């Protein structure tokens, strides 16, 4: 196939943007993603579990059997990489490549406007990435590839397609179960709508979901059967009392992605501008060509895309804010809705060459990249002294607790889980959230009195003052409240780097 001049420019731009984002990831020493240290610490525990160099086996236990959401954990704990952080950089690189590639493949398959693919770069560092939801954001390109497979239903009944459907559903289970559930929703909705005139075909298609459903049921029965009554009670109370107050905030979905670039109002303004720059062309195209839209909806491919878009919007507006032991649910779907809308808009956009539109889109992508380059490099610069050498020297068998009084970067919580770097860099023992999550796989091996629960937001002062008193080290960031003056006097300052401090517990003779 011979490429036209415009397509050559597109593929050159597409490749260049991927290379620049890969450079951004690899030049970064610390990534400013909130929960990422939790995931790296869990991978470190799993990778070095039982080694004589640490005491992980005494303090933790790991149960991986039939567990979902373990792809990042297994990937980063693999001994094929020199370190957990290197493995995560490779993982991030795969994501940076796969997300725009998945949008490209989908739009080409739909015969949509190819330049719309570049909009995906503006959401590489979406809400899920900023919060460090590693499994969820990596599942996004896999979800798009799954939607690609749905485009061939019901015409393609080949063994290859059916095998890929089964494989992707199973893979999504291990990457992130919430995305797998959404994929199942799309699978059943598309299967019923497009095959409703032949129940036999619908049933045959639905059988492809059976392995994933059996895996899901087995996992729930083994680990969460007792959680069911608590879950249903929570959901009943949530939709009765708490759902309506969240509705206004849900209308602000355009501000969820990219808002961490700057503090508060400025961050949300930038996020809105980026989202509007993406959605306005898509909605304008759909409205301007609404007469053609009906004709498009008669085709299988366009029907799938609009079910995809509507399903994402439905999840965004109907899912709860969180579940017991699991936070932030509906917010994760904002980027899925935006990517689906971009894909839908590409269907009806004019394929005629438009130099102004092309140049504007390229500039927008480069400006977005420069904003994140500044965001990442300033984060590294602000933490220039927070290095493995700062943690080095702490005895791995001794316990460290975190008191992150100043937890924000550019007005948003970012440092809450940095005590995990004692685990990651030093194979040490730290108070951490890796054992707190209901759907996690790393669990406590010893009681809370031996390794206290990590109160990352420092809300429970009495608990901290009572239970952190016996730890060996404190990692402190910022100035502690006056309530901690007597408590901190039992420790001596041993290391300082910028706004970071390490304290060691005073021996009886030192008191």
Characterise the protein shown here.
The protein has 511 residues and is of the alpha/beta class. It has two domains: 5-30 and 64-215 and 245-377, no CATH class; 388-510, no CATH class. 56% of the residues lie in helices and 7% in strands. It is built from 22 helices and nine strands. The chain has helices at 5-26, 36-47, 56-59, 71-76, 84-110, 127-130, 134-150, 159-175, 177-195, 199-206, 210-223, 227-242, 247-250, 264-288, 290-296, 300-318, 334-348, 355-382, 388-391, 421-426, 461-467, 485-488; strands at 60-62, 399-404, 408-409, 412-413, 429-430, 442-444, 473-477, 491-497, 500-505. The protein has a five-stranded mixed sheet with strand order 5-2-7-9-8, with no helix packed on it. The chain has a two-stranded antiparallel ribbon with strand order 1-6. The protein has a two-stranded antiparallel sheet with strand order 3-4. The chain is globular, with a radius of gyration of 25 Å.
Shape by Cα distribution = globular
Query: Which parts are unreliable, with pLDDT below 50 for 5 consecutive residues or more?
Result: none
Number of domains: 2
Largest sheet: 5 strands, mixed
Provide the descriptors you would attach to this structure in a database record.
single chain, 511 residues, alpha/beta, 5-stranded mixed β-sheet, two-stranded antiparallel sheet, 7% strand, globular
